[in-house]
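ok so i was messing around last nite and threw this chain in just to see what happens. nothing serious, just curious
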Amino acid sequence: QVQLVESGGGLVQAGGSLRLSCAASGRTFSSYALGWFRQAPDKEREFVAAINWSGATTYFGYSVEGRFAISRDNTKNTVYLQMNRLKPEDTAVYYCAAGGIAAISEYEYDYWGQGTQVTVSS
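result:
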């Protein structure tokens, strides 16, 4: 069992940056792949980024590639999402998730956090 708690969301102007954190409980954190997803009002959940258990492999959604970075610190049981050059269309609730493999599909993830709101003003 893994419990995930996101933090770091907030209001930022377009062009700014935010760093989201997701802290996990459980001693097996380093064995899980982690992903970030987001969901805007009246839209489907969208893949943002994923990282494998070691941090050696990462994936990004098309709309964020080149602007966002994902990293993890297995000594702190934490995964990060660094978001740069934010746009109003990045406004959404951001969720972190843990699963067996780093994947684009939300169905590959077994555990989910409650989400943190990110709002980008124009």
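not much to say yet. The chain has a mean pLDDT of 96.
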